[in-house]
Amino acid sequence: MINSSNALLIALLPYISNFAARLELPNPRPVTAAQVAVCLPQYAPEGRVAGFIMLTNGYRFWFKGGHVNMLTAPDASKDLQHAAGLLPEDGKVRLTKAQAITAARKVFSKLGYSDDMLGTEFEPNVELPETLDGHRIGPYKLTWPAANYTSDFDSVEIEIDAISGCPTHIFLLNRNLDRPEPPVNPRPACFESIENPRLPTTVTNDFEKRRIAQTLVPVLNDFLRRLIILG
Prior knowledge:
Order of helices and strands: HEEEEHHHEEEEEEH
Number of helices: 5
Number of domains: 1
Mean pLDDT: 77
Distance between the termini: 50 Å
Helix content: 25-40%
Number of strands: 10
Strand order of the largest sheet: 1-2-3-4-10-9-8-5
């Protein structure tokens, strides 16, 4: 019998596999269930399909709006260790700002997204790699503001490793990318309106505790990495 978690995994795996193949990520292709360490449904408005998948090699994917809308590479978590002085300097910045922008555009092209779709026909806002005591602690951080929003929303965010030129983080926020969602049956209970989520009050199962911890630690690392204290 297929439960809701398995149903979500079956629905999302083709999208994850295609995304990983387009970016030539270092994992066997196609991505199979054996490569999945964590698969969790996520809350989304209007009962839409949304989920999080982490592979055994540390790559993390978020699915929303009928497509993979966010990726974080395992190398991104090293920034906190660099900031804490736990890792030695692993190299000098090799990419120029212009090269980082070119690398980002190549990523979008590999994913099949045009400038018109993303709103990236203009030059992005670029945050240069930071250093702390001679250690590299951050990639190039590029953002393209969304022209169709009146507030400070971005259309796309991407971080490019300053040494390898590979993407360490991609966040696609432009709603032009939304596509029909895959069917998920049975549907996880949390595919509810975000205004009325059904949250468990207590988690007592050891497996569930470990699974939640595996999910939250990388997310918290990504959040902390962006705090001003790393500047």
